[in-house]
Fold this protein.
Amino acid sequence: MAAISVLVIDDERNLVRSISFSLTNEGMEVTGAYTGEEGLALAEQILPDVVLLDLGLPDMSGMTVLEKLHDRFSELPVIMISAHGDTRTAVQTVKQGALDYITKPFDLDELILLIQRSAERVRMQREIHFLRERSLKTQGLVGEHVSIQSLCEAIKRVGESSAKTVLVSGPSGTGKALVAKALHDARYSDAPFIEVNCAALPEQLIEAELFGVEKGAYTGANQRRSGLIELADGGTLFLDEIGEMPIGLQVKLLSFLENRHYRPVGAGRERQADVFVVAATNRDLKKEVDEQRFRIDLYYRLNVLPLDVSSLASRASDVSLLVAHFAQLFATQEGCRPIEFDQVAAQTLQGYSWPGNVRELKNLIERLTILYPAQCISLSQLPSEFVPDAVTSAENAHGIHHSVEDHERLLIEQALSDAGGRKALAADKLGISRHALKRRMQRLRMGDYQ
Ligand SMILES: Nc1ncnc2c1ncn2[C@@H]1O[C@H](COP(=O)(O)OP(=O)(O)OP(=O)(O)O)[C@@H](O)[C@H]1O
Ligand SMILES: [Mg+2]
């Protein structure tokens, strides 16, 4: 990750020097300015990630500089430095859009934490912005993993082709319905998208739904009823859960797929419809064929253009993107700031097996946003299936206790190494207090804790 770039605007040269020294030690890039004018010019030049701004500058008030900075860079986090006794003005600046303020004399550790947090928040905002742009291009499919990127490429190519039938396969909750819609959007801008769930209705009803009913076809059919195929004419027919289609109907569907001709229930003549058919299944269709639940000829007809959507566990690197995406989505829905996750919780999500795939992740984020709006979620707030090595029975409690300790030790070591050995920062990353970290390290007999 690129170094955090900080612009310090303060006329106290000694203070700028000591701040620069400590921040540079933390691996940040620091630029100093001694007047408001100079600070504004430098902000244009270096585009800092965070600005530290003194309230009392010689040439203009810190408040004016803050306004000018926000006119130019609306999202730029600005932390105000206020003199002792000037808290009231500092609070005013926060109302005007400053991220926070710190009062002289201040603890440099505290300042460093504040900067790191603000930079992280901006990085997240930029990432979400980037994601949103990208998902517009890929019709809502969020993901950086190579399997999602090649899927998006394939969707685009199929959309531009004249292919008539596509089969989308993958485990439940991986986004097959989203892929079907993306295929439709890649081909048409204003055409019907008609969805049929082949598992939802009994055989006769699906037939009537799909192909329509001629007037007088049976008692009670006193007027002609259009089928979904007719409604989809000129657009897409999405046959969801095709693996569940009753075997008797499969032959009728096959005949439609062969030449786009079909016969409504009770009709003497065939009709024709120009439809792009997207079928989806979470079953292994080949196995269904072997077990004679699915017609082999229909399988081959559908399988001309197979698109596979992989499980979320096989693209775990996308978990954090999806989490950020849905946290933003549900925050907008609930009218709050997006939830965040401390490091342990984030790592737990990353390592989870996600049997329900993206749907499970989406539901979890919705639930957490409702229960803990705008909070930073820690491990204890996640549902029990996420808590590693939960003690389930007395017999294995001892062994599990050890593995929990190992797990804790590993997480603490990782956090300390990420924080360059700084315990306050490591505790913050772990989402616990410095005191709690000290206690745990002592309990786990980890090094000497000063
Ligand atoms: N890559 C993704 N980016 C953003 N949202 C996603 C992604 N994949 C899935 N979703 C969302 O997750 C939810 C579940 O996806 P979808 O309904 O498409 O799954 P499915 O594969 O059709 O599952 P099933 O086999 O159970 O019908 C939907 O709300 C969908 O919008
Ligand atoms: Mg589905």
Summary: Residues 390-397 have pLDDT under 50 and may be disordered. The CA atoms of residues 197 and 240 lie 5 Å apart. The domain at 313-386 is CATH 1.10.8.60 (Helicase, Ruva Protein; domain 3).
